[in-house]
Amino acid sequence: MSKGTARHTGGGLRLEDVGKRYRAGGPWVLRGVDLRLEPGTLARIEGANGGGKSTLLKLIAGVEAPSRGRLLPLTGGHGRPSTCYVPERFAPALPFDATGYLTHLGSVHGLRRREAARRAAHWLERLGLADQATVPLRHLSKGSCQKVAVTQALMAEPGLLVLDEAWTGLDEPSRTLLDDAVRERVAAGGIVVFVDHDPRRLAGEVTSRHAVRDGTVVPVAPVLPVEHEDTDAGKPAGRTALRVTIEVTAPEAELDAALHTVGAAGVVTRPAGGEARVELAAEHSDAVLRRLLGAAPSLHVRSVRETEAGPSGRAQRAGEGGSR
Ligand SMILES: Nc1ncnc2c1ncn2[C@@H]1O[C@H](COP(=O)(O)OP(=O)(O)OP(=O)(O)O)[C@@H](O)[C@H]1O
Q: Which residues belong to any copy of the ABC transporter domain (predicted)?
């Protein structure tokens, strides 16, 4: 992180009965959303494709205005936190190179131009983009553009950082760097809210999980800590009573092939065409999840939930506030 980090972050944010539709009289994408984001929160947002995750992130980031309800500073806060937002795809049609763009945005965020240029150079170097700092943005590859988008968010050291699949398209070292930067923001008292297709992203560190479901936002049980494959050593007592439910989607014709990786470790059910649910003992979940994420044909892991074995031995949903 650059020098002079961890400036005051500006407190938390509250969503009060927030709703969103994109046109008057159109369908509500979100309704009745109540959410508190305290300083130091690392919040993960989950949910099915098209359910409204990106819409929620845009509302939190202030990129979209709510159609109803309000976003308010938490009581005792210092106004809306300074905010940066990184979308999944950043394709700027702007007459800038990376340095010019980042310096300009740094100024918008209140940095002196010299400090903005210094921070831009620092992050471009860390992300391995220093040699492309003077290439026009429109000539950069998708991955390089994504690095520029991440850089503009990190160099501003915002109180609220909103990441919509921001890891997608980054190379592995840059993903690790972004993970670290998120930790630094949270440790500095900032709020980070993110969506990512990999359920293991920052799994042991997430402080709040919510799912967008049926047009509203419900809390989800905490993620299981990531553990080593093929060993029971060191597992907490009673862990074997826990179950995990993994929901996946894939093109219907490819789903069976992709699910072969589950083997005998779990019970697979198919609620609808391209959807499947895998229930299994918690001790097998990390290994199976790794195999599912690497499955060919590929599939999309929609959610991973910890559940408790009920009296019948079947999994019961734990810690969710809504129904499907
Ligand atoms: N700018 C827009 N104008 C009109 N409708 C929109 C707009 N953006 C999103 N929508 C609609 O809102 C709904 C929710 O979309 P959103 O992108 O928020 O979902 P998502 O959960 O992020 O999806 P995905 O997982 O596929 O990225 C969808 O029906 C989408 O078509």
A: 13-239
Q: Would you place residue 43 in the very low, low, confident or very high pLDDT band (cuts 50, 70, 90)?
A: very high
pLDDT attached to residue 45:
96
Instruction: Give CA–CA dist 146/140, Å, rounded.
Output: 9
Both 191 and 88 in one domain: the answer is: yes
Looking up residue 264, the CATH number of its domain turns out to be: 3.30.70.1150
Q: Read off the pLDDT band of 241 (50, 70, 90).
A: low
Instruction: Pick the atom of ligand 1 nearest to 23's CA.
Output: 4
Q: Report the domain count for the chain.
A: 2
Q: Does residue 233 lie in a domain region?
A: no
Taking residue 277's Cβ as centre, other Cβ atoms within 10 Å add up to 18
Residue 49 CA: which ligand 1 atom is closest? 25
Query: 147 with 181, same domain?
Result: yes
139 and 274 share one domain: no
CA 57 to ligand 1 centroid distance, Å = 11
Give the structural domain span for 82: 13-216
**Pocket-forming residues, ligand 1, beta carbon under 6 Å:** 22, 29, 47, 49-55
pLDDT at 193: 97
Quick check: 49 and 213 in contact, CB under 8 A?
no
Residue 1 domain-assigned (yes or no): no
Residue nearest to ligand 1 atom 5, measured at CA? 22
Are 212 and 245 contained in the same domain? no
Contacts for 264 with CB less than 8 Å, ≥ 6 apart = none
